[in-house]
Amino acid sequence: MEYILENVWTAENESRKKNVYVKNNTICYVSDRPLKIKCMKVNTNGLQFIPGYIMRDFSLESLDTESLLKRCEEVINLGCTTLVTTFSIRYGKEIEDRYNRFLNHLSVMPIDYVIGLSIPMRRITPAIVRFCQKKKVPFIYAVVEQEEDPDTVVWEWIRNVNFPYTIPIIPGWGQLALHDKRTMQLKDNWQRICRMKSITTIQSFPLEEQPLTKYHLQELGIYPKKGSWITGSDVDYQVYQQDPSLAAPPRVQYDKSNKPLLVVRNGTDLKVGGDLRINPGTGKHLKITRPGLFRAMTDDLL
After folding, report:
1. CA 190 – CA 73 distance, rounded (Å)
2. Is the pTM of this model over 0.85?
3. SS3 string of 112-152?
4. For the segment 25-51, what is each residue's pLDDT rounded down to a tens digit?
5. Beta-strand pair 112-120/17-23
6. Fewer CB atoms near the end CB (10 Å): N or C, the chain?
7. Where are the domains of the chain?
8. Beta strand spans in the chain (E)
9. Which helix (H) or strand (E) holds 192?
10. For residues 289 and 137, what is the distance between their CA atoms, to the nearest angstrom?
C-alpha cells in the first residue's frame, strides 16, 4: 500500500510541515513541498501527525506475561510505539542465559523494543562489552551501588575493546541515598573519568513514561529509524486533534493527560479512538547497527 501524508508536523524544537510518501510500511520520500506522486493522499487538516514516542521502562524483566501486555497498553495510550528496556545481571557468567531468557520473555510484545544491559558498575569487564557488541546491545546501564564504584573499574581496558561498536555507559545513581550536592560531585567525577579515559556516556535517561529526546535516540542509535520523518524510517506515528482556533499550531507538547486519537506502528493501527488493537508477538526486537551513528544529524534533516 502506498499513500502520502500531507502537512505532517515534525516533533523537534521548531515545528515544520512535511509531506511524507509511504510505501510498503516504509517512509520512502519526504519533502517540504507538495508531492505529485499518483497515489492516495491523506488530508491532515484539523489534525496533528507526529512521530511515535520512544520511552524507557526497565521493569519489564520482572513482569509476567499478563502484566507485560497491560504495560504495553498503558504506553500505547501515551503514544509510545517503541520501548527501551534492560535485562539485568550481577556476574558475567549469567549474561548469555539471562539475555536469551529475556528475549523469550519479550516475544509477546505488541510494540517494538530495544534491549540494553543493566549491571553493577564495578562488574563491567571487557568480556561483558564484547558480548554486548556481538548481540548488538546498544547501551550498558551501570548501577552505582557505592560512591567509589566509578574509580574501581579499569576503564582503559573497557575503552580498548569498545570499538568500533561503541557502547555508551550510562550511570544509574538511584541506589545511592545522597543529598543533591554530593550526587552532583559524583556526576562531575564521572564526567572527568569519561573525558580522561575516552569513555562514551549518556548522563541520564528521562523518567519512565517520558519520551526520549532526539539526543538520546541518536546516542543509542535508534534515530533515525524511529522518532523521525526521514526516508527509510519506520511508519510510526500518532495523531492528535488540532485546536481549531490556531491557524499555525505549535508542536505537540508531551502531556500524559492529552491522549492521541490514533497510534500507528509500522503502518499498523495500535489505537483508534478509544479502541486498542493489541496483537501479542507482533513487536520487533530492534538490533542497533551502531550507537551514535547519526549523532551529528541536524534538525534540518527532520
Report:
1. 37
2. yes
3. EEEEEEEEEHHHCCHHHHHHHHHCCCCCEEEECCCCCHHHC
4. 889 999 988 898 999 998 888 888 999
5. unpaired
6. N
7. 2-52+227-282, 54-197
8. 2-9, 17-23, 26-31, 40-42, 47-51, 53-56, 80-88, 112-120, 140-143, 169-172, 237-241, 262-265, 268-272, 275-276
9. helix 180-197
10. 10
